[in-house]
Design brief:
The chain is of the alpha+beta class. The strands form four sheets. It has an eight-stranded mixed β-sheet with strand order 14-13-17-18-11-21-19-20. The longest helix is centred in the N-terminal third of the chain and has 16 residues.
Length: 303
């Protein structure tokens, strides 16, 4: 009996530290043993940690090579998810231009199998997710240009400010639901979220955002959630989109042209209309949001 339990335990541990690569209905298992037998490359990195510059040598396997070894070449982006639910997105161009690896050795020392880490000298270390449980192949197209952008301030100005944003201590602000419930009648699904520092996530509401809050910090709202590792929290949340509707914090961005830059739209729309409950006026992509807010504009209609 004890022998059977030991075998089951070993199999369980082996499965936990393996990485699932999910491509539609196909699921591939990348074990530590499999990874260790693949051709290796070396990456030298520099990063600041605790105000000190750390220079490190990493050895591992090219993520692009791993995908190709499973016959995966047709995709637009990847989702890399850790066991603690930490999530990063990588576009295919990131694999081509920034050459991330799954590192198994750091400075000549083997990493524990559960510490296998995505590393790139050209990616911010917030993307260096470790203890990866899944790599999901994503072939979805980019979100369409929104048909309407609503100013977050016009929504929140009508909501009572909360001084008890549980489970966060001494947090003042709003729940995420306070902001989105009248814009997106069906709350479920994926949301594109972009901070004023350019950090972006596409997150599922049920898994990441159903308990999220907007915490007021230095005149900006930080998006935090007990469902998300702290490294994924967004400082200065600026842009939210689901489907063809979007919300923007007008205090964090100057105009439509800047929104186009942070979202990566292929083109900058023209023939825009700023709207409120009493007025409707045409504006240009360079019209300042500070100017519109003095006129009680609540949002912008795109062509």
């Amino acid at each position: 009996m004890n022998k059977i339990l030991l075998i089951c335990f070993i199999l369980l541990i082996s499965h936990l530290v393996a990485i699932e690569i999910i491509d539609g209905e196909n699921i591939y298992i990348l074990s530590g043993e499999h990874l260790s037998k693949m051709p290796r490359v070396t990456v030298k990195t520099e990063r600041y940690k605790n105000d000190e510059l750390k220079q490190e040598d990493w050895e591992g396997v090219s993520l692009d090579f791993i995908l190709q070894s499973f016959g995966i070449t047709n995709y637009s982006r990847l989702k890399c998810i850790a066991f603690d639910n930490y999530l990063v997105h990588l576009d295919k161009k990131d694999l081509n231009n920034k050459e991330p690896i799954l590192a198994i050795i750091r400075d000549g020392v083997d990493l524990p199998q559960e510490k296998t880490r995505l590393v790139s000298s050209l990616l911010d270390n917030m993307f260096w997710v470790q203890n990866i449980r899944q790599i999901i192949i994503d072939n979805e197209q980019n979100l369409p240009l929104p048909s309407e952008i609503i100013f977050a301030e016009s929504i929140l100005s009508r909501k009572p400010l909360s001084h008890d944003l549980q489970p966060f201590v001494d947090a003042i602000g709003f729940s995420f639901r306070d902001l989105i419930d009248e814009v997106f009648p069906f709350l479920g699904g994926n949301y594109l979220l972009i901070g004023n520092d350019g950090v972006r996530h596409t997150l599922d509401f049920d898994n990441y955002l159903s308990n999220a809050v907007l915490v007021l910090e230095s005149d900006k709202y930080a998006l935090k959630s007990p469902q998300m590792p702290t490294g994924m929290w967004l400082k200065g949340i600026t842009y939210i989109q689901k489907g063809d509707l979007a919300i923007v914090f007008a205090a964090n961005v100057n105009n439509i042209r800047e929104i186009a830059e942070i979202t990566g739209w292929d083109e900058i729309p023209v023939n825009l209309a700023a709207v409120s409950s009493t007025r409707h006026e045409f504006i240009s992509p360079d019209t300042e949001f500070t100017q519109l807010r003095t006129k009680n504009i609540t949002g912008i209609i795109l062509p």
